[in-house]
Design goal:
single chain, alpha+beta, Alpha-Beta Plaits, Uridine Diphospho-n-acetylenolpyruvylglucosamine Reductase, domain 2, Uridine Diphospho-n-acetylenolpyruvylglucosamine Reductase, domain 3, 4 domains, 7-stranded antiparallel sheet, 5-stranded antiparallel sheet, 20 helices, disordered N terminus, binds flavin-adenine dinucleotide, binds (2R)-2-hydroxypentanedioic acid, binds zinc ion
Length: 515
């Protein structure tokens, strides 16, 4: 028998509440708020210590080559058309590239890079431009190489579950394509309607179900990439097992466009689950959050597919800015626990029993569980649209930290106390099951003073706890100088050597990743 609170709220299964719809595609920055007045300061002005490298400035001859190769329609030079490619999604950084190239094939990417390498033209590879560390847009006038038109699905194997596609395929499109095959993409994230699989691979994106399906280093079986000099590297294996020499694909997974341009991906896709359940819970302390995550791992075992948390201030963000409805009254913490399996009765029984005990033990104060698609979507919207809600709250300082689970939340109150009234909001949420905290601080507007109060404190705090300063978003433009908080000098040195080997003229995404 379910305790009263849960049973009452699990009535949501049959209820009619509508909590809002996530737009299928995230708007490009310039479309979302469109006006020059709301654009961020140019990166070169906000970060004057970063100096433009000794690269060629684009001239008529360069443009003539590009239009000869791609045709005029796939070479954007009109400033208003280039604007969206110059600003990142959270409007933290802005470059001033005057040229966006839109190849359709690997051969075109190869010719572009070979030309840029020869003429020392800096290139910024860009997928869906949803990256959160400023890696996807130019810092100065780098040419943008967009994968938007590289969106062909090459093959889908129902038996092995292997999908092969071009790098510019949108994650959600791939997932919809796989559904009739009884398969799904092994990763899911709030940006799925815009981000490209090539961008996901380049950032080694984590997302909402990494806990269950692992990271892309495991599920990407092979890839094709173009090196800085235009050479095509065919590592597009579709084999699950292949130990012939070094695993070169791993050089590109998480390399954030600095070692090559990913052009094709072969990815292992798991079967689409026949049964999905989602519980949304209210808790009164982080101690209890920890007890519940442990219990969920043990009791739900193989069917646990996601374990996320958010604090009250985060919930307030989506309620006040996006007008989404919280299905529970206010609690200091909320958790989302999802199961995916193959037998609805079995899974429902298991999750109901788990929730029943958690409530009897007073670990969970209230909750709702559902298996209805529309209601699960409403609950997931609350979680997936937090980044969008943050954008409405002011300028956002965004941190993506891995911490030992017992210290998962400790940074949030420490930062709130440190900033006091300097911050509008200091909130914490994230992939609890993976120990990945998203700390977000909003302020009315960017100032160097607040930045100095936050950094390097946030990285020192993380390093002392032996955490990682980037759990899943990457290093991009925002964090290179802090890499040493998570990586040894020898590791950084080897990364620099690899970069010099693969991109000796440093044309690929300069100013990013490496200190
Ligand atoms: P972009 O933003 O265009 O590029 C990201 C980086 O990859 C850049 O350095 C770029 O140069 C490089 N790059 C892009 N394409 C290529 C290519 N083909 N070859 C080489 N380099 C390339 N991340 C997570 O890990 N987990 C999440 O849960 C998550 N949720 C998000 C939710 C929202 C609402 C948003 C806006 C972002 C979220 N992110 C998340 C950030 C995440 O990194 C991206 O959404 C995604 O992986 C980036 O894909 P993209 O195609 O937009 O890449
Ligand atoms: C998420 O998990 C993304 O929603 C974005 O990684 C996190 O906006 C953020 O801080
Ligand atoms: Zn995340």
């Amino acid at each position: 028998m379910l305790p009263r609170g849960l049973r009452q709220l699990s009535g949501l299964r049959r209820g009619t509440s509508s909590l809002g719809i996530r737009p299928p595609y995230l708007p490009r920055p310039s479309q979302s708020r469109g006006l020059a007045g709301t654009l961020p300061e140019l990166t070169k002005d906000r970060y004057p210590h970063v100096k433009r490298g000794d690269y060629a400035t684009l001239d008529g001859n360069h443009l003539k080559f590009f239009t000869g190769l791609l045709g005029e329609n796939r070479v954007l030079t009109d400033p208003s058309e280039c604007e969206g490619y110059n600003v990142d999604w959270i409007k933290n950084v802005r470059g001033y590239s005057q040229c966006v190239l839109k190849p359709k094939t690997t051969e075109e990417v190869s010719k572009i890079l070979s030309f840029c390498n020869e003429h020392r033209i800096a290139v910024c590879p860009q997928g869906g431009n949803t990256g959160l560390v400023g890696g996807s847009v130019p810092v100065f006038d780098e040419v943008v190489l967009s994968t938007a038109l590289m969106n062909e699905i090459i093959s889908t194997d129902d038996t092995s579950g292997v999908l092969v596609c071009q790098a510019g395929c949108i994650l959600e499109t791939l997932d919809s394509h796989l559904a009739p095959h009884g398969l799904m993409m092994p990763l899911d994230l709030g940006a799925k309607g815009s981000c490209h699989i090539g961008g996901n691979v380049a950032t080694n994106a984590g997302g909402l179900r990494l806990l269950r399906y692992g990271n892309l280093q495991g599920s990407v079986l092979g890839l094709e990439a173009v090196k800085a000099n235009g050479e095509v590297l065919d590592c597009l294996s579709t084999l699950k097992k292949d130990n012939t020499g070094y695993h070169l694909k791993h050089l590109f997974i998480g390399s954030e466009g600095t070692l090559g341009v990913v052009t094709k991906v072969a990815i292992q896709c798991p079967p689409k689950p026949k049964s999905v359940n989602l519980a949304f819970l209210g808790l009164n302390s982080f101690d209890n959050v920890l007890k519940v995550v442990k219990k969920a791992k043990h009791e739900l075992g193989e069917i646990l597919s996601s374990c996320e948390m958010m604090d009250a201030l985060t919930m307030d963000l989506v309620v006040s800015h996006l007008k989404l409805k919280c299905p529970l009254i206010e609690y200091p913490f909320y958790m989302l626990i999802e199961t995916q399996g193959s037998n609805q009765n079995h899974d429902e029984e298991k999750i109901d029993r788990f929730l029943e005990v958690a409530m009897e033990e007073k670990l969970v104060l209230d909750g709702t569980a559902t298996n209805e698609v529309s209601k699960m979507k409403n609950i997931w919207d609350i979680r997936e649209r937090i980044t969008e809600a943050l954008n409405h709250d002011g300028y956002v300082f965004k941190y993506d930290i891995s911490l030992p689970i017992e210290n998962f939340y400790s940074l949030v109150p420490a930062m709130a106390e440190r900033l006091g009234s300097d911050a509008k909001r200091v909130c914490g949420y994230g992939h609890l099951g993976d120990g990945n905290l998203h700390l977000n601080i909003t302020v009315k507007e960017f100032t160097q003073d607040v930045l100095k109060k936050i950094e390097p404190f946030v990285y020192e705090f993380t390093s002392k706890l032996r955490g990682s300063i980037s759990a899943e978003h990457g290093i991009g433009f925002r964090k290179p100088k802090y890499m040493h908080y998570s990586k040894s000098p020898a590791s950084i040195q080897l990364m620099k050597q690899l970069k010099a080997l693969m991109d000796p003229r440093n044309i690929l995404n300069p100013y990013k990743v490496l200190p």
